[in-house]
Design goal:
The structure is a homodimer. By secondary structure, chain A is mostly helical. Chain A is 35% helix and 2% strand.
Chain lengths: 335, 335
């Protein structure tokens, strides 16, 4: 269902016609390219499902609740709130540019967006909805049956169809054309002196060892607290929960820095409130470097240039339930 | 800030150029006209605030949580869920076409949309946010200060500015051009025989005594249970809470029937799940009439022709908090 190749071809074609675009800078952070889906109907269905609170037991929590597209694809809480006001264990990672990551979730326990999408629906502290009941809800809504039929050639709705549609919608949630990308593509005026100084310092001090690629992150798992241990009250142990290896304790997927101005608070436990604080802690714990205030300001100035064009999302109109649609139950225990 | 006159003038001008539109039928239900704001910047600011979860103590509840524009302007719960999963006492009325009502809330305690908008923000079981703190949050966000300055000529944000903006956005949330309105404007083919029979029965049996005007409701307060008392476990007593008069017990604002296919479940307590059930109960309790099954089906068929064009809403991109923005606290008691 993906057509990254087509998107790339278009990007290359555009690049060939543009003088400045031919001078792409060779940096550890790469530009983000727009995603062109070859299945707009699948994207549209996925958008509906992304905003669909009937995929939750309460009937009021959707993917967009914690991955709010009005707010940089996250909820800006330390850790998320789920079914019956349950406290989540980790900070909600942004859905923006999440297609560019090597795996999904902080601990990488899902290989891709499709595998990820099913998790929060049934997690008891998130949407709290058994997959079977979620399918029964969708299957009871004639407009959905018709739409699945049109997209998949079958109106017998499956979890794979639901997650494939959500994943394809999420593929479109990239944020190209940030000022940093404009600079990467040769526009020397896109960054100020301070921002450029910040980027040079960021690179020179080793941040790009982890924060690289088009998402400026998401390309590896790394231990939180390399030089000094990270102090946290969070019981979450990261990648070790997936691999079972003691060496992977406190190892997490490196988060993207794209749109990081919007995705506060920071770290897997959401304990860093500001970019200045996060930069300071990263310098000390990961690099053994104590940045001076001016250095932090420059790095933060650079980080804010990673804000790209947010996806323009027209709110879907969700089809009404039928008389036989199972009613939501906000007070039910999650199963 | 309103320009209903302009909207009307445009509608009339259009009507004058259209043969069928000149034969508007004189019925108790009137067509809905589009709303053209003369302050698009105010509308845009209001849209941001309507989707703004930082107006809640938890940082995750916005106007759109209970008045979801993807779902006919409501949450489709019996009664809404608020701060810390508090149970609301009444069913969330749709925000769609709410500008057409004589007053706001089920008991009419707010005179207009602007007066309404401030209530849920500070209600401890809704958004749980003291107005002072909400203003402090907005004031700490430079992009908001700039936008209020541009719209109101002052960056000193007040509650009146906030509610004026939300109200003006809500004015735009009308749903013109339903099939019923097409029929009202002279298109004889807009309704099927069954739908038309349903409307005739609806009118002949007295429903339009209360469900009239462009919103097919919202023009009066009426007692729930005229012929027979309404049986409900809900402690809500309606209009009496505002007037203090015993005669107003169980008197409620007549809800709009526009888009009623989307605004289930029904009544102030949300106890009627389907349109068939609601029609049956209304017939018995308000009119002393027991509709036969076929009659109910015809009335329901008519009711579904009241679904209009839903507002096309592009999700706003909310400006990021600053380092001094008060953090949300999902676990705080509402004040």
């Amino acid at each position: 269902m993906k057509s990254k190749a087509i998107g790339l071809a278009i990007a290359l074609a555009l690049a060939a016609t543009s003088a400045w675009a031919s001078t792409v800078r060779d940096e550890p952070i790469k530009p983000i390219e727009p995603y062109v889906s070859d299945s707009p109907e699948l994207v549209e269905l996925g958008k509906k499902l992304f905003f669909e609170p009937r995929l939750s037991m309460s009937g009021i929590i959707s993917c967009n609740t914690c991955h709010n597209l009005a707010r940089g694809g996250t909820d800006n809480l330390r850790t998320s709130i789920g079914h019956k006001w349950a406290a989540g264990p980790v900070n909600a990672p942004t859905v923006l540019n999440s297609s560019l990551a090597l795996a999904q979730f902080w601990d990488g326990r899902a290989a891709d967006l499709q595998e990820q999408a099913g998790g929060p629906i049934e997690a008891d502290i998130e949407m709290g909805m058994p997959h079977g009941l979620a399918l029964q809800v969708l299957q009871s809504i004639p407009d959905y049956v018709e739409e699945f039929e049109a997209v998949f050639g079958s109106g017998e709705i499956t979890v794979d169809m639901v997650t494939a549609a959500i994943a394809e919608f999420e593929e479109t949630l990239v944020t190209p054309n940030s000022r940093f990308d404009q600079w990467l593509k040769g526009d020397d005026d896109a960054l100020t002196e301070d921002e450029l100084a910040g980027y040079r310092l960021f690179k020179a001090s080793g941040c790009t060892v982890c924060h690289n690629g088009p998402a400026a992150g998401g390309t590896s798992f790394q231990r939180m607290g390399v030089i000094e241990p990270y102090q946290s009250t969070s019981p979450v142990e990261g990648r070790a929960a997936v691999t079972g290896k003691d060496a992977d304790r406190f190892s997490f997927k490196v988060p993207t820095l794209r749109n990081v101005e919007y995705t506060y608070p920071y770290f897997h436990d959401g304990e860093a409130r500001t970019l200045e604080e996060a930069t300071d802690i990263m310098g000390r714990l990961q690099l053994g470097r104590v940045y001076e205030e001016q250095e932090i300001d420059q790095i933060v100035a650079f980080l804010k240039t990673l804000t790209g064009e947010m996806p323009e999302v027209t709110l879907p109109i969700l089809p009404p339930s039928s008389n036989v649609t199972p009613a939501p139950d906000p007070y039910a225990d999650a199963e």
